[in-house]
Amino acid sequence: MLQLIEFYSKPCNPCGYYDDRYSHFRYFFIQNCSKAFCQALIERGYRRFGEYFFTPMCADCSECLSIRQRVGGFVLSKSHRRIIAKNTQTTITIARPSLSDEKLQLYNQYHQIMEGKKGWSYKEMCAESYCESFVDGFCDFGYEISYKIAGKLVGVGYFDLLENAISATYFFYDHKFSKLSLGTFNILTQLLIAQDKNLAYFYPGYWIKDHHSVGYKERFTPFEVLKNAPEIFELPIWELYQANTKEI
């Protein structure tokens, strides 16, 4: 039976995207979440990590936007095809989420590098925290993609396969293989899975226009933007994003 606990973060937590701002989140801790309820939350702007679902409720900032790609309208560009061609030696394995020393080591290595590269706050993750973030709560919809080259793990992606969509959860990779554009390759892999399964949408997570960490998500078109902040019993309002629109 589904069990849900609602709570909120402290409004004085540092923002993960802007050094001069604070973040405030609404959380649901959900055990035994159904695929349908997960999709309902994702459609309303929530993201999932483990058994936790969250959405921003920042009083003085609305930069984080929920977006979703229209899978049926997505067409591979020339640059996308080049990235796929670069990864012909990259093997892909899809399985249920699990913990291994290799994944944990790659995760910590990735975040340690990103601390210096993009200023991310780094704290070594333990096995228990890894499970709480990526393994717990996958129920009947959570999956893990392992990317390997010559047997070496070079990237790990997590996603939820829902009733009419795929929702990307997280991705990390080995920076020694940066030339392969593994982050983009991971998104393309999930978009192509969604197309193969005739799903309607792909949810890549929050987008901030021109931001150095999440601005890249606008490169996958066409995409829609969530225009409201609906409660679970209210309908979400999604609108197609137009690149020449001055205000979103």
From TrEMBL:
This is Aspartate/glutamate leucyltransferase. It holds the Pfam family ATE_N. Its EC number is 2.3.2.29. Keywords: Acyltransferase, Cytoplasm, Transferase. It catalyses: N-terminal L-aspartyl-[protein] + L-leucyl-tRNA(Leu) = N-terminal L-leucyl-L-aspartyl-[protein] + tRNA(Leu) + H(+); N-terminal L-glutamyl-[protein] + L-leucyl-tRNA(Leu) = N-terminal L-leucyl-L-glutamyl-[protein] + tRNA(Leu) + H(+). GO terms for biological process: ubiquitin-dependent protein catabolic process via the N-end rule pathway. The keyword Acyltransferase applies.
